[in-house]
Amino acid sequence: MLYLSVFALLAASLLLSLIEFLRRRRSIDHIRGPPTKSFLIGHEYDLNRQSEVGDLEFKWLREYGPTWKIGGLLGSRGLMTADPKALQHIFQKASGKYMKKASQNHILWLMGGPGIVWSQGEAHTRHRKLMSPAFSIAHLQSFLSLFQRISLKLIEKWKTELFNESEMQICVDSWLSRATLDVIGEAAFEYDYRALDDADQGVLAKEYHGIFKHSEYMLPKTTLFFRGTWDYLPLPIIKLFRYVPMAPFTHLRRLNSVFTAYGKNILREKRPGFDAQDGARSKDILSILIKANASSDEKSRLDDEELLAEMFTLTLAGHESTAVALTFLLYELARRPDYQERVRKDIRRARARVNARGDSEFTIEDLDNIPSLTNAIKESLRMHPGAALLPRMATEDDVIPLAFPIVSTTGEVITEIPVSKGHTIIASFATYQRLPEIWGADADIWNPDRFARVDVQKPTNIGVYANLMTFSGGTNACLGWRFSVIEQQAFAAELIDTFQFSLPAGSSAEDMEMVRAPAGTGMVPLIRGKPELGVGLRLRVSAAL
Predict the structure, then answer these.
(1) Is the pTM higher than 0.85?
(2) What does the pLDDT average to over 76-97?
């Protein structure tokens, strides 16, 4: 009798799940989209295996408009959208109704633990409230001198390499990754990683560099299916997968182990002599978090596991993403020497104004007043977004509005889409940042001058910087976006003023074309057709005249 009751309960659960599954499918059956090749994994494999982020999405954009239906795990159906009003609704106006998917979110937990990028709901609000003071505009201004000092240290390293040579080839992304690691070490923890001082990359720098290629690039179908099942499993079971003895879990465990050792050592050095007076003087982010942890309200604290997770997140997001952004910027300028020279002249004119008033270093206002440089940074972030897409799952029934209507399978014009609880909506930031209706008819071309003529506040304002979604938006927007932008401005101003960047001798732009290879929700910079070379960009570097 007991067995019959258990069987009846399981059968009822499966029946209810099937009814809910069919209900969700019917609610978007009228939305057009590409045919699905695989019942098991939908379009996951196609998106993961495309040559470059956007190859498929841009094609689907032209065929179906900015919103379309897409296949998911086990025959499920979801939406992919680049529509600005839909993105604004999901990430700003109704963000509480859309949560991160377990299959996406647990990779973040495997990498760094229960930090701000992993947390959701009240936990995310608590993390964000504790960390926000460290990213205030006033506090960020104090980091500019650090950015300039490390960039000048990098320049001296390259000058030493150039000694007695007219030019050299440099793996710029590796050097930039080491420099930005030193920056985040001092800015976040008042700790010197000595990444630039090591004759070779240090252990931590090696583990971090190319992490997304190791963990997310060209995943086999079995791995994609395995991860897809995480959306249907309880968290305690999912957490056991960190011990799976195969890639990418082994690499993630090793990275987490290496950083945990660094993090615990930093905390051991930081905590014993820390008091309120030290906290008031210290400008690093960790000091602010330790000071916040002295609160008598337990709900306003981070435990040690959370604190280490925040340290990991700051180190990864605070150095690798900025290094990749600078890498793409220098690559685009190397392909366009005329624009590079224009930026250099503007930097030198700005420096002359600084010297004329009796100063020696740029202020943030000075950097903001070099429009050719600022626009080049914006354009590189637009064309090469570190976060190419982000999946979200509806936690309740909702209606998503559209700025740009689409046509249904029956020819009906659709201006809003009802979605059911459990539906997956994939926000395609890379596609949004190519919409000609917003960015102009030349949206597929790298052209910084568009920011001098395009009103990026229209038709819908969604991004935290230049209306881009590179840093996401709303309550889940990257807290450190200003930190990254100022760091890029400071590094680029010093590097471009000092050096000329060119493609390697004998290489055409096509031979050394960098692509945004898909890696999970993000991308990694690889040379087209040469993935075996790994993450890397070699440029000719010479003294700028």
Answers:
(1) yes
(2) 95
Cα–Cα distances in Å, from 258 out to 206, 287, 321? Answer: 11, 22, 20
Query: Residue 12: what pLDDT?
Result: 42
pLDDT surpasses 90 at 130: no
Please give the average per-residue pLDDT across 383-411, as a whole number: 95
Mean pLDDT rounded to a whole number for the chain: 85
Q: How far apart are CA 210 and CA 231, in angstroms?
A: 27
Name the amino acid, one letter, at 426: I
- Residue 411 vs residues 32, 59, 372, 405: alpha-carbon distances, Å: 10, 20, 45, 12
* Rounded Cα gap, residues 545 and 276, in angstroms: 50
- Summarize pLDDT for 45-57 with one digit per residue, the tens: 999 989 899 999 9
Q: Is residue 410 within 8 Å of 62, Cβ to Cβ?
A: no
Sort 174 into a burial class: Cβ within 10 Å, 0-12 / 13-18 / 19+.
Answer: buried
Residue 272's pLDDT is 67
CA distance 483 to 104: 25
Task: Mark residue 461 as left, alpha or beta (left: phi above 0; alpha: psi -120 to 50; beta: remaining).
Answer: beta
Instruction: Report residue 10's pLDDT band, with 50, 70 and 90 as the boundaries.
Output: very low
Tokens of 479: 């807290």
Q: Do residues 187 and 318 touch, judged by C-beta distance below 8 A?
A: yes
- DSSP symbol at 466: T
Q: Which residues of 444-468 are buried (b: 16+ CB within 10 A; e: fewer)?
A: eebbbebbeebebeeebebbbbbbb
Q: How far apart are CA 381 and CA 391, in angstroms?
A: 20
Question: Would you state the pLDDT for residue 511?
Answer: 65
Mean pLDDT for the stretch of residues 290-298: 70
Looking at the predicted structure, is the pLDDT value of residue 378 above 90? yes
DSSP sequence for 30-56: TS--PPPS-TTTTTHHHHHHSSSTTHH
Give the side-chain half-sphere CA count within 13 A for 165.
13
CB 422 within 8 A of CB 78: no
Distance CA 244, CA 254 (A): 12
